[in-house]
Amino acid sequence: MTILTDSEWRKLTRDLSRRVGVAAPDWTNTDASDPGVTMAELIGFLAESLLDRPDRSPRAQTRLTAVVGDLADRVRDGSCGDVRPLTRNRYFYGKLMSVDDFTLEQEYVRGKGRRHNLLLHGVGIAWGLEVTVEPGPTTGDHVVVSPGLAIGPTGEELLVCEPITIALGPIQSPSYVTLGLVDRPFAVVPTPDGEEASHVEEVTVVDVLPDLPAPRFALARVKRTGRRWRLDPTFKVPHRDP
């Protein structure tokens, strides 16, 4: 049975949407969970017209049957891969707002941005973020990461504005040069129960780690040869098309 990747399905869906939209501008493809009557009818038409062609070889016939069947299953199930529906507040007069409600409001906006990054841009380095290993005359070898931007595995924007230098020292070999997004609370204010930070700053941090915990993004892998550290040329930076 033929299995297409998520990237191949998205490209196929975009092509079908564009072609159907020309013939039927008012079709019902309003969102990812509503493939529309026109899309379902189109799949049925393709299945009937292509599967019944006598000039197709048995092998091609089997492949086409699997592809059309898998596509029909996805349309029926409304499958969106790892993307999940978002939840937002519904306002009405008299509604009491709690901390959870305001947190939900923030998560909705943040979730929309991450979903946009994943579905339209994918995962990988947008620009910059070059990694080099430099010798130190007294402190030993260290890693230098140049400024740049990457989209992480969950759609977060990982922005490094200035060169980052990290001493390698006595760490495990091999290790990964990673990016991660962390929240740094600040602006502490008094509260009835003590003190609380009133703001949170999202900061991209660069670390050298012996493993790769989710959802960290790996820029490079370094290995120690004798007393020297070097970049591992076999390591491939993670990349996933939208």
The end-to-end span amounts to 24 Å
Percent in strands: 25-35%
| Helical coverage, percent range | 25-40%
Morphology: flat
Mean pLDDT: 80
Largest beta sheet, briefly?
4 strands, antiparallel
Number of domains: 3
- Strand tally is 10
Number of helices: 4
H/E element string?
A: HHHHEEEEEEEEEE
Structural class: alpha+beta
Residue runs with pLDDT of under 50 for 5 or more positions = none
Numbering strands along the chain, what is their spatial order in the largest sheet?
8-7-9-10
Cα Rg: 25 Å
Walkthrough of the structure:
The chain is α+β, with helices and mostly antiparallel strands and 242 residues long. It folds into 3 domains: 6-77, no CATH class; 82-121, no CATH class; 124-231, no CATH class. Helix content is 31%, strand content 29%. The chain is built from 4 helices and 10 strands, in the order ααααββββββββββ. The strands form 3 sheets. The protein has a 4-stranded antiparallel sheet with strand order 8-7-9-10, with no helix packed on it. α2 packs antiparallel against α3. It is flat and about 70 Å long.
